[in-house]
Amino acid sequence: xxNIRDTLWDTGRDETVEVNQRALIDKVLARYSGEFTVFxxxxxxxxxxxxxxxxxxxxxxxxxxxxxAAASSSSSPADAEPSEGDExxxxxxAREDLPDLKTVQ
Length: 105
What we know:
Domain Sacsin/Nov: 24-71
Pfam family, one: SACS
Region (Disordered): 66-105
Number of helices: 4
Radius of gyration: 17 Å
Strand order of the largest sheet: 1-2
InterPro entries: HATPase_C_sf, SACS/Nov_dom
Number of domains: 1
Protein name: Sacsin/Nov domain-containing protein
Helix content: 40-55%
C-alpha cells in the first residue's frame, strides 16, 4: 500500500476541483430515489473492485416495518483492490452518467 501511495504522490499533479455540492446531492438523490438502492450500488462497486467480502452496517432512528426511516450512520469496509486506469476519465464518466434534474420526475 505504501508503494502505491508513494508512486501516486511522486507522479501525481495538483489540480483544482470545484464541486457544486447542492446540485451533486440533488442528482445523487434523484438517481438513487428508491429505498435502499444506495446499498445495492455500494455492493456493486465493491464487486467491481474485486472485493471478496463486504460489510454494510446502518442504523435507523426507529426500526418500524415498511417505513422510510432515515439512516443515522453508515459504513462499508471492504477489502477491494485499488482501481486501475485513468481516474480522471472515470470521474468524468461518472459525472456524465448522473441524470439531468430537469428530466427526473
